[in-house]
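Support request from a user on the community tier.

User writes: "When I paste my structure tokens into the form, the page sometimes reloads and wipes my input. The last time it worked, I copied everything first. Here is what I submitted, just in case something in the input itself triggers the reload:"
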């Protein structure tokens, strides 16, 4: 149980951190630019939220299985996404990244264009404007999106059970114990996992509130 909970925690954190590196700049590009089919792109972003997560797992399996280019490339590098923590990380990201993207897009959209234009007029590069103006002003939305993405990945079951039944993350372990031994054998793991998640979210909420209070002084 301890190993399963630890696996769930570190893979969900890794998934959030790794994929946010690309998701945050992508959100900025979408928010700050007008281009054809933008509404369709926004719709595609939300597909993982809409479809059943077992279907998301099947779709993802079609991309990262051993018979695909991605899967073969991974095997050449010495690992496989199937039944591997890497597969868990990808599955978590696939179903949870829309929460970060949507929140970050809203944050960047609300950053006044005039501030960015003034900075560039004064000689600042686009990269400097992004890191010194756009990113700090959108940070509240980004942090909210990161927390939502992490929380969604932490609780994912449907996609992961298709991609990586083993090693077992906690939601899969709970399902396995319930099917094999019934409710009474499942309760201790469930209660422990809920308590850990609740404690983490309470701590994160306290830290977030303290930072907000410091910023408003």
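"...and here is what came back when it finally went through:"
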């Amino acid at each position: 149980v301890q190993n399963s909970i630890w696996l769930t925690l570190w893979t969900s954190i890794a998934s959030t951190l790794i994929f946010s590196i690309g998701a945050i700049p992508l959100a900025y590009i979408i928010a700050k630019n007008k281009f054809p089919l933008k509404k369709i792109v926004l719709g595609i972003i939300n597909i993982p939220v809409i479809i059943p997560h077992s279907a998301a797992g099947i779709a993802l399996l079609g991309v990262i299985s051993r018979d695909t280019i991605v899967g073969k490339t991974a095997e050449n590098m010495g690992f496989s996404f199937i039944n591997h923590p890497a597969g868990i990380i990808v599955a978590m990201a696939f179903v949870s990244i829309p929460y970060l993207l949507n929140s970050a897009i809203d944050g960047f959209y609300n950053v006044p264009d005039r501030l960015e234009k003034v900075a560039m007029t004064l000689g600042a590069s686009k990269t400097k404007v992004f890191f010194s103006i756009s990113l700090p002003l959108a940070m509240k939305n980004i942090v909210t999106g990161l927390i939502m993405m992490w929380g969604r990945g932490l609780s994912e079951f449907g996609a992961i059970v298709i991609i990586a039944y083993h090693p077992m993350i906690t939601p899969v372990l709970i399902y396995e114990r319930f099917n094999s031994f019934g409710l009474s054998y499942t309760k201790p793991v469930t209660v422990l996992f809920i308590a850990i998640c609740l404690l983490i979210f309470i701590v994160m909420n306290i830290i977030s509130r303290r930072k907000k209070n410091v910023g408003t002084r």
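Agent notes: The reload is a front-end session timeout and is unrelated to the input. The CA atoms of residues 70 and 160 lie 18 Å apart. The mean pLDDT is 90. Escalated to web team.
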